[in-house]
Amino acid sequence: MADLPPDFFDRDSASVGRDLIGVTLLVDGVGGPIVETEAYDPLDPASHAFRGPTPRTASLFGPPGHTYIYRSHGLHWCLNMGCGKGRGVLIRALEPMFGIEAMIARRGIADKRRLCSGPGKLTQALRVDHGLYGQSLSQPPFHLIPGEKVEVIAGPRIGISKGVDTPWRFCLKGSPWLSKPSPI
Q1: Taking the C-alpha atoms of 3, 4, 9 and 12 in order, what is their torsion angle to the nearest 10 degrees?
Q2: pTM, full prediction
Q3: Most CB atoms closer than 10 Å: which of 83, 134, 149, 150?
């Protein structure tokens, strides 16, 4: 199983966000196919990179293919995959397939549907936190395996107050593993 090519992330974030749907994300062997993402770029008022580079957002402006991890509302870690130049893709949900027992233990729930159906749930299930900030996605503990071509739908992003109408939320059509129902 080959990982994604090194230049996969060196593109606009909307293309990367769409193309990540169906890619299997593993962190220390735990994870599954990505079913929901959201893209952000530095001209987007909803992006953390909108005001330019800061110590917090440095990895978004660094080399493509590195993590940008931040705490949402002071509660949950969120995993973003940096595309360089202030661009990034938030991983919103995946289908749990590998290491399910570890995910159940980390989340404290047995309902498979709720293990990774949201950015904070996903990072807790995969044991992703700020200690992995700036890490290369092409090196352990990360493993990204290309998937088969899947049908992707796009719609407005969720959970934000600016740039709401930008159709950069990408979902696997018909997936029951999404954080919220798909727009179509």
Answers
A1: -160
A2: 0.93
A3: 83
